[in-house]
């Protein structure tokens, strides 16, 4: 059975050629940001779009009717989406104008780029639908500061579940933020920033392990790449901390550091020494 594998990485270079389109000669009067969104929307009917960029032509500033001329590039994740776009090229219109599509060649050396978290989430949502995943913080802890170091460092472990597919992925992330001991609230800000970034990087690591397999019959399967290495090895002893907090809802994106304003240095040190564990 024919299949296509999509990982949470995108290639740049010679293999990237078949995923790129050059969109030429569509007219109108748009802002570049607006037209890029319109191009991405139109081309996403053929498959998930990694990126869409649009530029105003310098060779043909305006047409006879006063409209601007644009060209752009649409990047797909998969070869199948590229083929569908070619077949539908005569039917894709931006505004009221049809577009002309050609493939773009490249001589760049191949480079593997890991997807940002939001793009990895969007890719899964495209194939599995909304609410296809859930996440849980298994561990988040502040690392001890070394002597003479003005750096807050957090380690975070999360688990991302895909219930409908009966698979899950775990990711470990490290967040660091420097602080100035002579600046008021600098340590509090670094504390919040490092913890938030450790959560983000652990989520990125977890989503980066999912592999999307598109079968020839149109069905989708999800596997987990077990060959990827996390920044550190998870210790099961972390599941038995000295301090336990029950019924804690932890959401780093909703944290407000204003509540730390006015704390003394000793109070802040005591706060930073408390372990945070969610269940």
From TrEMBL:
Recorded GO CC terms: nucleolus
Residues annotated as domain DM1: 116-197
Pfam families cross-referenced by the UniProt entry: DSRM_RDM1 (PF25517)
Any single biological process term in GO: double-strand break repair
Record-linked SUPFAM superfamilies: dsRNA-binding domain-like
Coiled coil: none
Protein name: DM1 domain-containing protein
């Amino acid at each position: 059975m024919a299949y296509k594998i999509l990982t949470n990485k995108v290639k740049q270079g010679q293999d990237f050629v078949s995923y790129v389109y050059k969109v030429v000669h569509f007219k109108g009067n748009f802002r570049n940001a607006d037209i890029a969104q319109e191009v991405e929307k139109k081309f996403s009917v053929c498959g998930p779009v990694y990126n869409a960029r649009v530029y105003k032509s310098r060779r043909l500033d305006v047409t006879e009717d006063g409209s601007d001329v644009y060209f752009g590039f649409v990047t797909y994740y998969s070869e199948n989406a590229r083929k569908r776009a070619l077949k539908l090229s005569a039917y894709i219109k931006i505004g009221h104008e049809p577009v002309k599509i050609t493939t773009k060649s490249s001589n760049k050396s191949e480079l593997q780029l890991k997807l940002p978290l939001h793009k990895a989430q969007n890719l899964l949502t495209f194939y599995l639908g909304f609410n296809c995943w859930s996440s849980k913080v298994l561990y988040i802890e502040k690392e001890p500061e070394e002597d003479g170091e003005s750096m807050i460092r957090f380690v975070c472990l999360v688990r991302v579940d895909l219930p409908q597919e009966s698979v899950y992925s775990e990711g470990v992330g490290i967040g660091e933020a420097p602080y100035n001991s002579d600046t008021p609230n600098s340590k509090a800000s670094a504390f919040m920033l490092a913890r938030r970034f450790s959560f983000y990087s652990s989520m990125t690591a977890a989503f980066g392990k999912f592999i999307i397999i598109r079968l020839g019959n149109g069905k989708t399967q999800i596997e987990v790449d077990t060959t990827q290495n996390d920044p550190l090895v998870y210790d099961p002893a972390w599941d038995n901390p000295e301090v336990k907090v029950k019924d804690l809802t932890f959401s780093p994106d909703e944290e407000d550091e204003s509540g730390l304003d006015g704390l003394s240095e000793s109070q802040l040190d005591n706060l930073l020494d408390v372990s945070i564990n969610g269940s």
